[in-house]
Design brief:
heterodimer; A: alpha/beta; Rossmann fold; six-stranded mixed sheet; five-stranded antiparallel sheet; about 40% helix; about 25% strand; globular; B: mainly alpha; 11 helices
Chain lengths: ~240, ~290
């Protein structure tokens, strides 16, 4: 397998404060990679750095080419969709308009129409509410909307920031089942940030444990999951 | 009775002009949460440009269209060159920039076109429409133009991908960038549209208030009153507010305070609305779940 996304010595800064101190991570083509770690370890910042939302240094390779110079608006044009922290809903727009924005950079109208049908197939609740203002949706529905908006790009790589955050267990289960289906059926690679390590390790094939902006441990998800000492010292269960 | 009706109807014509200018104010307000005090002077300058073209022999509607295009480009350039460098500046700095723009447009117009009042012909034939005795033909025409502008702006924001992208960029710039919208350009286009819409207001107002560098000062004040009355974050509220202010102004001018101090009606409306209902009649009170 070849790495779709790879960082070398990735550093990121909020103003004068350095949050990432040289991060080396990779996402395999067709794979799911999980970023785990405590609050403030730099997981969300890693996703933001990939999308040029924070000041950053270091090398980022995507599909075999450097993408360091890409602005946020252009990262999406490489087929990278970001489901941001806090879901990034356009609260005053309707559900349908939110989805249409996900396909903003695409010009293949027919395929976009098919993708509407596809995401409504995954999340029928969104179709029922498609004329409703997105801000009036429940938290779970907004998370479904955020994932759907990202899928409307027909991405090659999906960056997911805490898709389970604040949701009821039954909805989390549903969303993770659909994420797995998207990965298998559409070959969408994923980089997923999660607080809920158990959940993420079940979904992912590879995982990185991040501690204060550096990779502490990395390896196949199954191995990390079964390593008792890792589990106790880093994952806390 | 017919005198009152006459006041109401000609108030509607002026109100339409306030409505258009209010729409221009709202367009920039929604994206930046700032009121562009120079909007009126930009419209005045556009009107002079139209006057110059008509004066040189160009047919009215050609000059009208060309002025709108030039104003659009001018508005975009102002955003890119003058406003962009202050994108992260404190509000007060930007207000000063707006006032600076206002003064620059006012004095450049005075210097280039002189402060002498000029007449600006109406494009509408001087015949009362459908036996309408309550409004002059220009007043009827101005109302029609107002409705055309409102309909076009509505259709643009509601049905085109660019309109949707502009609404998205105004309300959530971070998410907009993530879906690939070039937020900076959306702002520039917003300024261009506001300038183009303002130019229509100026060209419709000039046959009524005559052309001079200070012609838009009062109109901007009324437009602002209309925007505040209707809700400055709501384009349709602002348009309705503009019409309402136009009628109130005319009635107050004729029957209540007299024409000399009727401009203070605008101020009374602004202060009154801000005290009683700060979000305006149709504005949204922001409620956020925390």
């Amino acid at each position: 397998m070849e790495a779709l996304l790879e960082t070398r010595g990735l550093k990121a800064f909020y103003g004068p404060i350095q949050v990432l101190h040289g991060l080396d991570i990779a996402v395999q083509e067709g794979g799911i990679t999980a970023l785990l770690g405590a609050n403030g370890a730099g997981k969300t910042t890693t996703l933001r750095a990939l999308c040029a939302m924070v000041r950053r240094e270091g090398a980022i390779n995507y599909g075999g080419a450097a993408m360091n110079a890409r602005q946020t608006e252009d990262v999406v044009r490489l087929g990278i969709a970001h489901v941001p922290d806090g879901r990034g809903t356009f609260v005053d727009l309707t559900v349908e308009e939110n989805l249409r924005l996900g396909a903003y950079t695409r010009s293949d109208r027919e395929a976009v129409k098919q993708d509407f049908a596809r995401v409504y197939g995954y999340f029928p609740r969104l179709e029922e509410r498609r004329q409703q203002q997105a801000g009036t949706l429940s938290g779970g529905e907004q998370q479904m909307l955020a994932i759907s908006r990202a899928l409307m790009l027909r991405p090659k790589l999906l960056l997911l920031d805490e898709p389970s955050f604040g949701l009821a267990p039954i909805i989390i289960k549903d969303i993770f089942r659909i994420l797995r289906a998207i990965n298998r059926e559409d070959r969408v690679s994923m980089l997923i940030v999660e607080q809920n390590a158990n959940l993420a390790l079940d979904l992912a094939d590879h995982a990185y444990l991040i501690e204060t902006g550096r990779v502490a441990i990395s390896g196949p998800a199954a191995a990390i999951k079964s390593d008792d000492s890792v589990r106790r010292s880093y994952l806390g269960y | 009775m017919s005198a009152l009706l006459h006041q109401i109807f000609s108030g509607l014509a002026m109100g339409g002009i306030y409505a258009i200018l209010a729409l221009a104010l709202v367009m920039i307000y929604q994206a930046t949460h700032l009121v562009n005090f120079a909007q009126g002077e930009m419209a005045m300058f556009s009107t002079y440009v139209a006057w110059e073209m008509i004066d040189s022999g160009m047919p009215y509607w050609a000059a009208f269209a060309l002025t709108i295009v030039l104003s659009f480009i001018g508005g975009m350039l102002i955003e890119r060159i003058v406003i962009r460098p202050f994108a992260h500046a404190p509000v007060l700095t930007i207000v000063i920039v707006f006032i600076g723009l206002l003064l620059i447009f006012n004095s450049v117009a005075g210097w280039r076109y002189s402060y002498t009042i000029k007449t600006f012909d109406s494009p509408f034939p001087d015949k009362r429409w459908f036996g309408n005795t309550l409004m002059s033909s220009h007043e009827s025409g101005a109302i029609l133009v107002t409705f055309a502008v409102l309909a076009l702006v509505y259709a643009f924001f509601r049905f085109t991908p660019l309109g949707l992208a502009m609404r998205a960029a105004a309300q959530n710039p971070a998410s907009s960038r993530l879906v690939g919208i070039r937020v900076g350009w959306m702002l520039a286009i917003g300024w261009g549209l506001a300038a183009a819409i303002g130019a229509v207001a100026g060209m419709m107002a000039a046959p009524i208030v005559y052309l001079d560098p200070n012609m838009m000062l009062g109109i901007l004040l009324y437009a602002f009153a209309g925007a505040v009355l209707g809700g400055i974050d709501n384009p349709w509220g602002a348009a309705i507010g503009g019409f309402t202010v136009g009628v109130l102004e005319n009635i107050a001018g004729a029957y209540v305070v007299g024409p000399e101090i009727k401009l203070s009606v605008a101020l009374v409306i602004i202060v009154g609305v801000l005290v009683v209902r700060p979000s305006g009649l149709f504005g949204r009170t922001l409620v956020t779940r925390v």
